Amino acid sequence: MAEELSFPTGLGTSDATTISLLGQDLAGDLMGQVGFGELAFWLVARRRPTRGETRVFEAVLVALADHGFTPTAIAARLTYLSAPEALQGALAAGLLGGGSRFLGVTEDCARFLSQALDDADKRDSYDEIALKAVRATRRVPGLGHPVHKVEDPRTPVLIRIAKEEGCYGPHLALFEAVGRVHPKKLPLNGAGVCGAALADLGLPVDLLRGFALLARAAGLLGHLAEERRHPIGMDVYLTVDRNAVYEP
Amino acid sequence: MAEELSFPTGLGTSDATTISLLGQDLAGDLMGQVGFGELAFWLVARRRPTRGETRVFEAVLVALADHGFTPTAIAARLTYLSAPEALQGALAAGLLGGGSRFLGVTEDCARFLSQALDDADKRDSYDEIALKAVRATRRVPGLGHPVHKVEDPRTPVLIRIAKEEGCYGPHLALFEAVGRVHPKKLPLNGAGVCGAALADLGLPVDLLRGFALLARAAGLLGHLAEERRHPIGMDVYLTVDRNAVYEP
Amino acid sequence: MAEELSFPTGLGTSDATTISLLGQDLAGDLMGQVGFGELAFWLVARRRPTRGETRVFEAVLVALADHGFTPTAIAARLTYLSAPEALQGALAAGLLGGGSRFLGVTEDCARFLSQALDDADKRDSYDEIALKAVRATRRVPGLGHPVHKVEDPRTPVLIRIAKEEGCYGPHLALFEAVGRVHPKKLPLNGAGVCGAALADLGLPVDLLRGFALLARAAGLLGHLAEERRHPIGMDVYLTVDRNAVYEP
Amino acid sequence: MAEELSFPTGLGTSDATTISLLGQDLAGDLMGQVGFGELAFWLVARRRPTRGETRVFEAVLVALADHGFTPTAIAARLTYLSAPEALQGALAAGLLGGGSRFLGVTEDCARFLSQALDDADKRDSYDEIALKAVRATRRVPGLGHPVHKVEDPRTPVLIRIAKEEGCYGPHLALFEAVGRVHPKKLPLNGAGVCGAALADLGLPVDLLRGFALLARAAGLLGHLAEERRHPIGMDVYLTVDRNAVYEP
After folding, report:
1. Which of C69, C93, C240 sits opposite B79 (nearest CB)?
2. Where does the chain cross the membrane (chains A, B, C, D) (predicted)?
3. Which residue range(s) make up the domain with C124?
4. pLDDT tens per residue, range D165-221
5. Contact C75 B70 (CB under 8 A)
6. Do C95 and C214 sit in the same domain of this protein?
7. Which terminus of chain D has a smaller tally of CB atoms within 10 A, N or C?
């Protein structure tokens, strides 16, 4: 069976003498001239970020890279303990926990804000939009934090950086309004404010979890490097196994 | 059963008002001041890279981020096609191909060079060390490329950047010597030279695959963003399925 | 810090001379006396299935084990091509496609039927319940098939086996009623009828995807064994790569 | 570009009215007539096992299905805690630990025995072959167990079942000989004897890890079902996190 096949892509291509990426000459135009975070933004958004956008974007990645012994970090370390020859498996195991509960807030918060902005009466102030959105939902993603009960230290810093770089837009404004009008006076958490900032950078809401995963990939590598030098995986395993209690 | 438990880490910790990462105040000292690539280096190496080291390191990540429709990129897109609600699964599936054949060269090349340097007679020149190492092995990892048969365009650029930043060390020097003395006159490929450059930055050889995986994570996000906008996964699947031939 | 730790489990425990699983002596009571499918049912449901239940359950697993070159099978083969030294990664990559679109129907269909039964007026016939449920939904999971447009050959066989073994219950009855009353006269597909059969076995709806994954694990091993003997992964990759077209 | 494409497979194919698997009519010949373990064997070995072979094979799968709170089971539970909406990710994370250390013994033991048999002088007795093989290696895979220091209860049972079914062959015979001649008098562990039994069934040594993974998939589903009903993942996480100690 003969057919005309065509698989379009705007990413990488190569021939005998050149490698192109995003329509650029990889060696001549990108290596040494584009930062890694900048390239990650460009790969997803298909436009090169400005210097200010890059700073906000990298601040988000830095904010999300690691949170110590999260369930995903522990899962990665246990997988490395069991299969140290396949680093990719340990990293993948860690990323697979990047779902709704522990890494989803960034995307969920941005989706909540984005939806509220889409639905808003254009004459309403941010506080009015926020009040309506808060009343229409059971739980606002990105509000409140189990540890940082008064203020998440990442929140004011990211808002300041976004303002410094001219990247403070409607999502961050609405999120701040949500914090003001919400009856429970809960702090805006860092994962949520990261989502608002990424949405203000024009990144697609459906892929924001992807940036949280990229950030976490760096954090997980840090954990795996530490597990290699100073392992705790065996102790975690033995702590659980030795305290196992049979219950029919 | 009561026991004294202690899980040491040098990465992240937090309390009600602060988040620390690598002994720094995450919000005050890192966000907006440290680039993402710089942080990834720091997390693994446990030391902050200099500005020049960061430039070399990010050039490596940029060089390794994407190579178009690799098996891993196709696997990630097919997984996204099947389970679009779990982006983390598609990313993980792509990374799981980061093993010996398609992503292992970076680490394998660095290990080969590192071993040759460890074994070398200190009075030997790089060409002499290279000649002995080449003769003692069946195949040098990082030598030759199926497409870039004369020169991999990434190679001279990365060597130049390393020299510009004062990061050209024994691994790159030995790899260039290998290229000079090898009887087959094969080009030094980009993945190999990246491994040599990372080793010259003092990064642990056993974890170099991790940096290739981090770089590839950005490339895979680019593929998944493209698959969302302009999918090819279904066409790949149908191309295979419609041309399936039963052979007992 | 000292604490009382206790991790309860009803699965496996062991000491120097015995291994227990599910409260049984693994070596004395299970090995050689319990089939693998039977054990899988027992592990999830926490009760040993009868001989008839086991036959229905294994018929479902056999029905779902393989469907040729699915996206998940291709993803597993491409991952094996890239990292042949880590079979677990190739298997995991294949399973990661077991999400909403290609493997979710089994669970989704059971959930739809289960919900309709919960909501039903107890005086209604199955056809009446089916009609109300069909009218209340946009799309019934498990109805229709892209290839088996008239009848999925697995459907009548599984219904017959369930009846033979006394395991034909309300979920299968309602699913057949859905087929009768639905205006489009679409066939009941095999994945859907498997979901109905598993629900009639009393297995928890939220975990039915798990059985589809277990079945698929066996199919994926078949693909990986075939990829080892008679590879097609490289051809898939080259077919895509050689027909890549750059589109900005 | 037009090309002749052909992707051969001996597994599944289908058309509008039939589904074939392994050259059989899936609905007519396999469902309800072939057990799941039997099918898994057939998919990999490409021959239908006898009733006796199936019993030995399923005894192996039952023996390997679960070992309580292993690192892989804990990793799966932590991943389920973080991303409960993606069961496939939790299962995949658990399988990714199926590498060299915790699940590799089965395959490694079979490879050791297989190599020793290949290298053997045909006039040697099993004890003589065993003695040479033991002397030539640093560590015999499958010998010794951290908990079952005197005897692994699975070992005599699996050997008995293999003998009952006429499946006791050179690998099991040699493994028993290894146990007799080894100077340390270590017990033959269950994972190792499973590898020897699978090799005696004629299954390819390079894929034996795959059967350990399939068995473990069932065990992991049991853990995930238990985690859903009676979770311990959060307690594991909190135990680690609350006892984290910062060490620069």
Report:
1. C93
2. none
3. 105-208
4. 999 999 999 999 999 999 998 999 999 999 999 999 999 999 999 999 999 999 999
5. no
6. yes
7. C
